Every structure is written in C-alpha cells, then in structure tokens.
C-alpha cells in the first residue's frame, strides 16, 4: 500500500496563477482532509470530505476549492494564488468507524507564491 | 468551540532523562485526544490517542500520555528520551459529541534531545 500520496511535492506560483493539488489514498478511507501548516500555527483545516461527492469547509477555506469525485482522490484548487497561500499543504485520510479515529497523512506539498 | 494549547514552543532534554510535552484542551463534549509526531520534511505520524477507558495511554516508540479530565490535559511522556525522539510534536482534539469530523491541532512543540 502506498498510503496517502500527494502531487506535486513542490511548486512555485506567481500571484494570480491557479493550480490543483492532488491527494490519493489506497486505504478505502471515507474521510479525507486538507490542512495547511504554517510556522507557529500548527495545522489548520482548509476543507474536508466525509465521502465521495461530499465536501465541507474547515477553519480557513477562503481562496480554496475542493472536489471529491472519486473516493480515493481529494483535489485542492487555488483559483488565483496569493502570497498568503505560501505554506506546506498536507492531505490526510481516516476510516469511518475506526475506533482509533486516526488520520493518515501524506508527505506534504510545499507551495510558494511569489 | 474546540481548542488545543501547547504552552511550550520548545522542550530541551538530555538523552536518558524523562521528557514531558504538555497539552491542554477545550471541548464542549467528550474528547478524542491525539498525539502526532512530525520528522523533518515528512507528514505527521500517529503516536497515540485517548478514546475512552484507562487514563494512561501507551503508544509507539515508548511514548505514553495521561488523560486528566479535571485539568483538561493530555501530556505526552517518555521515561527515557532518545536523540532520535527529536521532532515536532502535535496534540490534537476532536469533540466526539459536537465537533463532527473536525480535528483541531495545537501549534506544535519542538523537542530537542541532546546526547
């Protein structure tokens, strides 16, 4: 099992450009999440999904959109990138009904917006 | 609203000494509590969690944590630190009654273990 994978690993954008980050998991998990990690602020939830075809807003959703067309994939889109979106982005997944309620994280995408 | 506080940005400890990384939380319902560890340029890895039952929870790599409901704390401990324990540690909480599927993470505590 590859677990949770993220594409790309690194990206540099100019202000106003768009991009999509891809998260894929092969554990048949229902729940998927997108977080951003900034120094001194821990992880903040951007959007999440509780199943195929569903999405919901987290703490910091502005400037981002998501889609979950297939159970194994969760896409995060930036329509018009801003320097404030420079961050490390982590995807995570979790299984429904797992008593440990553990999230499994991808390796992260480091995004710089100039 | 849910919140997590990790009062120390950094904890320094000598190898072989016991370590404690502190965490306090606030939820309106009953909590699920977690500790995750992050090594450089890696994603977070699950260490341990408290769901219900015994207040002392044992996890990976010799770590343990004690749930204290009256103090709303979930401190991470290890009896004898290793240099390889040096990493960034995150406490997290989910309100199982009202928080839905959202897990809130603390800001993280960087642990340095000196040889």
Give the arrangement of secondary structure elements:
The complex is a heterodimer of chains A (114) and B (115).
Chain A: E1 4-7, E2 10-13, E3 19-25, E4 31-38, E5 42-49, E6 56-57, E7 65-67, E8 73-78, E9 87-94, E10 104-105, E11 109-113
Parallel strand pairs in A: 2-11
Antiparallel strand pairs in A: 1-3, 3-8, 4-5, 4-9, 5-6, 7-8, 9-10, 9-11
Chain B: E1 3-5, E2 10-14, E3 19-21, E4 24-26, E5 31-38, E6 44-50, E7 56-58, E8 64-68, E9 73-78, E10 87-95, E11 104-105, E12 109-114
Parallel strand pairs in B: 2-12
Antiparallel strand pairs in B: 1-4, 3-9, 5-6, 5-10, 7-8, 8-9, 10-11, 10-12
Describe the structure in your own words.
The complex is a heterodimer of chains A (114) and B (115). With 114 residues, chain A is an all-beta fold. Chain A is built from no helices and 11 strands. Chain B has 115 residues and is mainly beta. Chain B contains no helices and 12 strands. Chain B has strands at residues 3-5, 10-14, 19-21, 24-26, 31-38, 44-50, 56-58, 64-68, 73-78, 87-95, 104-105, 109-114. In chain B, a hairpin with a 4-residue loop joins strand 8 and strand 9 (73-78). The N and C termini of chain B lie far apart (41 Å).
Largest interface: A-B, 27 and 23 residues
Summed up, the helix count of chain A is 0
Helix content of chain A: under 10%
Number of helices of chain B: 0
Low-pLDDT regions of chain B = none
User: Helix content range of the residues of chain B, please?
Assistant: under 10%
The radius of gyration computed from the alpha-carbon positions of chain A, rounded to a whole number of angstroms, is 13 Å
Helix/strand-derived category of chain A reads mainly beta
Radius of gyration of chain B: 14 Å
Global geometry of chain A: globular
Largest sheet of chain A: 7 strands, mixed
Low-confidence stretches of chain A: none
Q: What percent of residues of chain A are in strands?
A: over 45%
Kindly, what is the distance between the CA atoms of the first and last residues of chain B, rounded to a whole number of angstroms?
41 Å
